[in-house]
Specification:
The protein has 149 residues and is mostly beta strands. It is built from one helix and seven strands. It has a five-stranded mixed β-barrel. The longest helix is centred in the middle third of the chain and has 10 residues, at 55-64. The radius of gyration is 15 Å and the shape is globular.
């Protein structure tokens, strides 16, 4: 993301983005890992399943992904991406920053709206600073399809 003066924002810093209540761009989880395709977009809406990792799961996750704040591992949005068939599906995810809403359980389908912090570098997670999260029915097609280039 860029600051108002055109300089790049520091990795992990909140983008200036649209004001709350302004339009959000509907993207899928894969889109969150291609910021060069979405120049200027900072406020997004994404559909996925929520994971609420326990302490042991968070400790394991931290071994494999760089995070500056352990609280970033409290809530994860994920969805499976298929290359060929369901047998080769791999999870795609984003970390969700916000206090966990009451009533959600792991694997609930949700629609989230918030400010997107693109990955700072290769291997870094995408992060969404949530404004809103709502439980929704499972979509007709729960899988994402891998882009063919």
């Amino acid at each position: 993301p860029e600051l108002a003066d055109g300089n790049p924002a520091a990795p992990g810093s909140p983008p200036p983005g649209a004001p709350p209540g302004g339009p959000a761009t509907l993207v899928n989880l894969l889109d969150l890992y291609y910021p060069e395709r979405h120049h200027g977009i900072t406020r997004v809406e994404v559909v996925g399943r929520v994971m609420l990792p326990d302490a042991a799961q968070r400790a394991e996750m931290k071994k494999h992904m760089p995070v500056d704040d352990d609280r970033d591992l409290q809530m994860v949005l994920y969805r499976y991406c298929v290359m060929c068939c369901a047998a080769d599906a791999s999870p795609v995810f984003a970390l969700l920053r916000k206090q966990q809403p009451a009533g959600l359980v792991t694997d609930d389908w949700v629609k989230v709206t918030g400010h997107w912090l693109p990955p700072a570098g290769l291997g870094d997670p995408a992060i969404l600073e949530l404004e809103r999260i709502e439980k929704i029915p499972a979509p007709k097609d729960p899988y994402l399809s891998a882009p063919m280039k």
